[in-house]
Amino acid sequence: MTVVVMGVDALDPDLVNESTHPNLTLDASSAVDTIESAAGEPSTHELWPTIITGLHPSEHGLQLDDGVAWDNPVLSVGSTLADYLLPDAVQTRIGAWLLTNTSEDAFRVPATYYEENGLPTVFDGYDAATFGIPNYVTNPDEEDREHRLRRKMGTLFERDPEAKGGHRSDDPLEFYELCMEMAMVRTALVRRGLRSSKYELVFGYTSGLDLVGHVSYDRPGLQERAYEEFDDFVADVRRDLGPDDELLLVSDHGLQEGVHTDKAMVASTSPAIVEDINSVLDVRKAIETELDARDHVPQEPQYEAEGETGSDDVREQLEDLGYM
Question: Which of 251, 258, 299, 318 is nearest to 6 (CA)?
Fold first, then answer.
């Protein structure tokens, strides 16, 4: 049995319904509580470490300071002086400029951080595969296409504290296409992890819906279209599930009119998982409960003759994305 978790940044419970998005609501779904950062809204930087540890940001230590993650490598030089010498608003603008005009990703804290600080994670003690989880980087020297696309967006996605939602795009339509490609990349990697039959837990993350939502506040049709397309992506994962596998979707917050909202969301093929989650703080325990309920022994994949395996479409998708 494999538990597949898809972390879907900004999947908003108010923007999905069973009839339009059957694969985003699955067999059971629910709005859940999230946590606000010092900046006054839920923060991706803080919340994915919370989701994988079950710890409040004040406990795991990855926190924002007025919207800027000063512990991040690109911002750490001189950050102590900045705390004393720069007003909060100026710090925020410097952070926005640096993250827009450098190649640094804001969410690249290595996985070793957790062990070094005695922090438990949902991956401890399980055969697990992870793809792109913010602030849980298993190999800082490797990137996938979502990382590369995020670093090369230029004016397609710029941080702007004066803009609604804090971001702007010179071409929202072109940006939308990039975001959907990023979501496809991570979906394909999750599918490959599942079909390999090697893991008890496959946990992948994508920021596609979040990014589209930040620049579509005056183009609501783009956000609606993104939800429809991502529903199709999840349908592919759902078709790959074996009879004993379970799928869980989890978000860190919602997003409406360009701004993070204070409700996250979970959905699962297992109603029991959803019943166990009332807050982002409950996700880790709910996943572990499901994993411990049934033993899973990793297996060597059974490769069939060409054209006889259902994984051909996954291989084709990875080839189209430049992985094979």
Answer: 251
Each residue of 94-153: pLDDT tens digit? 344 333 333 345 678 999 999 999 999 999 999 999 999 999 999 888 877 777 776 777
How high is the mean pLDDT of the chain? 82
270: its two tokens: 């297992």
Predicted TM-score of the model (pTM): 0.81
Query: 116, exposed or middle or buried, with CB in 10 Å at 0-12, 13-18, 19+?
Result: exposed
Give all domains of the chain, ordered by start, each with its CATH number.
3-61+109-320 (3.40.720.10)
* Encoded tokens for 48: 């994915």
Q: In what order do the strands lie in the sheet with 128-131?
A: 28-33, 263-268, 246-250, 3-8, 201-206, 128-131
Measured CA angle at 16 (ends 260, 233), to 5 deg: 95
Rounded to the nearest 10 degrees, how much is the dihedral formed by the CA atoms of 93, 96, 101, 107? 150
The tokens of 250 are what?
A: 């989890």
